[in-house]
Amino acid sequence: MASEDVKTNDSAVSKIVNLAEEAKLAKADIKPSKYQVYSICKSLVAGGVAGGVSRTAVAPLERLKILLQVQNPHSIKYSGTVQGLKYIWRTEGLRGLFKGNGANCARIVPNSAVKFFSYEQASKGILHLYRQQPGNEDAELTPLLRLGAGACAGIIAMSATYPMDMVRGRLTVQTDKSPYQYRGMVHALSTVLREEGFRALYKGWLPSVIGVVPYVGLNFAVYESLKDYLIKSKPFGLVEDNELGVVTRLACGAAAGTVGQTVAYPLDVIRRRMQMVGWNNAASIVTGDGRSKAPLEYSGMVDAFRKTVRHEGFRALYKGLVPNSVKVVPSIAIAFVTYEQVKELLGVEIRISD
Fold it and tell me: Which residues are the signal sequence here (predicted)?
């Protein structure tokens, strides 16, 4: 009996040891390797560089777009793209053209890094779930799946960096003639928190969430779908050795940016106007004559849409669209191509959806 008890105990101990070893192996599998960590870091760096380079290249147009979006309709200072840029140059000089770009880059670098990385992970996750369905075991990413992955990436990135976008908008709007100025992003964040509360940092968040779905989603979906089409059909000799040239990829990015921003632009206008509520010190919304009306207050996204259309007409929802279109075409194109080129230089796979 004693011998049998010993054998039973040995068997139990052996099972426990085996289970412990299996648990260690499972834990090792779950724990990311150094290669995986380096790959993630490289992907984040590539996304951040892409965002910083693309936004700096079009910073003057970005500032003019915001000024056009929020200017008081009773005191027009910026009547068009060329006139607006000339006016900023004449009144504020070169620094005026890039005002707010530092804050913009401080926001867009982490935003872009999170957005590209989130898209890669979301596309893998969505494709994995899609392949679990019967008959889809060998399925590839479709434009609709890419749209969903892009929407997820846009929401995650926008929500993570929204407070910086909010104060960046205010920094961009203020001029030397404003009665009160933020000294920088940190000062703006602390001032808004102190004077308007935490919720003020997320003014306009809802239209941003709704707008980011078609905007970022279409950017990724159109860009990748165009690339796939060109690689598979090889029209006009644009593709060599299953790789697209830089110029062709820039064209794909330009098309993607144009489609996305055209669909989502009205929501961007409403978001920007909601961000300005409670802050009446921007010169662009303070009129110089005694006849001007006070800036409108909005109780929410629907109210902002209604009042904008009622007081300024439907065209007001597309104020700043021309400079934004001129900006988006190179900006999105540069961002996609820079991201892929930096990943290639860092030794990470080039394809975004890989």
Answer: none
CA-CA-CA-CA dihedral for 106, 68, 202, 338, to nearest 10: -30
Residue 290 near residue 188 (C-beta atoms within 8 A)? no
- The helix (H) or strand (E) run that includes residue 147 is helix 143-173
Taking the CA atoms of 187, 190, 195 and 198 in sequence, report the sign of the dihedral they define. positive
For 84, 115, 157, 240, 321, the CA distances from 112, given in Å and listed in that order, are 28, 5, 7, 29, 22
Q: What is the pLDDT of residue 19?
A: 52
Contacts of 327 (CB under 8 A, 6+ apart): 58, 61, 62, 65
pLDDT value of residue 68 = 80
Q: Which residue has the tokens 């929802």?
A: 317
Of 172, 208, 144, give the one whose Cα is nearest residue 78: 172
- The span from the CA of 175 to the CA of 177, in Å, is 5
Task: Decide: 78 and 68 in contact? Cβ < 8 Å.
Answer: yes
Sequence-ordered strand ranges (E) for the chain: 239-240, 243-244
pTM, two decimal places: 0.68
The pLDDT tens digits for 227-275 are: 888 888 877 656 665 678 888 889 999 999 888 888 888 888 888 788 7
Instruction: Classify 181 as helix, strand or coil.
Output: coil
Encode 279-297 in three state secondary structure: CCCCHHHCCCCCCCCCCCC
In order of 81, 300, 301, the CA distances from 74 in angstroms are 19, 23, 23
Residue 350, pLDDT above cutoff 60: no
Smallest CA-to-CA distance from 284 within 137, 173, 193 is with: 173
Count of C-beta atoms within a 10 Å radius of residue 151:
22
* Dist CA 241 CA 248 (whole Å): 14
pLDDT for position 153: 93
Q: Residue 4 and residue 2: Cα distance in Å, rounded?
A: 5
* CB atoms inside a 10 Å sphere around CB 92: 16
Q: How far apart are CA 123 and CA 146, in angstroms?
A: 7
At 239, is the secondary structure helix, strand, or coil? strand
